[in-house]
Structure to design on (270 residues):
């Protein structure tokens, strides 16, 4: 086992030891190229050629890509049908799958490449907490979901609302509470960039609900639509392949398991 894989294994062990009991379903994040989009079947077919993991150093997170040999064909329904209007055949994408390569897709991001060769996401549909590939323009998104405890089932409950925090270059620049179906747009930087966030709906952890102590089950998953207008002069291109091993600078770790979300096989925050 080389040094890189040893670091990933240690991070996974640390996540298992520190994660809430409810966070039991593994997530796999891959990158690849869309082969087909089938709107009538609500299906996206992609050829995955790399896995995505994260490393730590000096209180920062590095997103790391490891080639998949051979490539893996993935067929999945997107987290929301809106993805079918964003993703097209030939696009480079990142996919986060719940429970393994054959699991449901809980996040899909459209990939572009910066002038320095770093993959970034311009459009995301699904759970941003499950996507380790960074947004373009050094933006980042976190959220806390309020559970409907009266309708909780095991470790999850319907999300009544989400409190969304938007970060730019590592600094929190905006915060807003959204109900299902609500959205906001932020364009406070003087570089032509903008971020539009819509909360579709989903689940919240029931950990704060009365009587939830000790319950084991799946983690909560919420669905968003995120569209980022890149800064002027970003000079983005479509990656020819996503399989070249690279280490792109990530963002400051905000919490133990949340910062690890989307590693090759990793537990998410419940």
């Amino acid at each position: 086992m080389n040094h890189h894989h040893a670091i990933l294994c240690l991070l996974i062990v640390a996540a298992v030891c520190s994660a809430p009991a409810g966070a039991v379903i593994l997530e796999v994040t891959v990158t690849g190229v869309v082969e087909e989009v089938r709107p009538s079947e609500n299906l996206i077919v992609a050829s995955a050629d790399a896995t995505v993991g994260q490393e730590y150093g000096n209180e920062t997170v590095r997103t790391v890509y490891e080639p998949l040999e051979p490539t893996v064909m993935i067929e999945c329904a997107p987290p929301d049908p809106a993805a079918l209007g964003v993703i097209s055949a030939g696009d480079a994408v990142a996919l986060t799958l719940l429970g393994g390569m054959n699991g449901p897709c809980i996040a899909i991001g459209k990939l572009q490449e910066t002038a320095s060769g770093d993959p970034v996401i311009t459009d995301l549909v699904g759970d941003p907490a499950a996507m380790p590939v960074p947004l373009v323009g050094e933006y980042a998104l976190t959220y806390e979901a309020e559970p409907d405890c009266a309708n909780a089932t095991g470790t999850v409950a319907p999300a009544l609302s989400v409190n969304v925090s938007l970060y730019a270059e590592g600094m929190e620049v905006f915060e807003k509470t959204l109900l299902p179906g609500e959205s906001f747009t932020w364009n406070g930087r003087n570089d032509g960039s903008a971020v539009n966030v819509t909360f579709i709906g989903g689940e919240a952890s029931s950990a704060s609900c009365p009587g939830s102590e000790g319950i084991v089950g799946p983690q909560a998953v919420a669905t968003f639509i995120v569209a980022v207008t890149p800064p002027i002069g970003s000079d983005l291109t479509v990656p020819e392949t996503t399989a070249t091993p690279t280490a792109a600078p990530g963002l400051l770790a905000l919490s133990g398991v949340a910062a690890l979300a989307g590693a090759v096989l990793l537990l998410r925050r419940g």
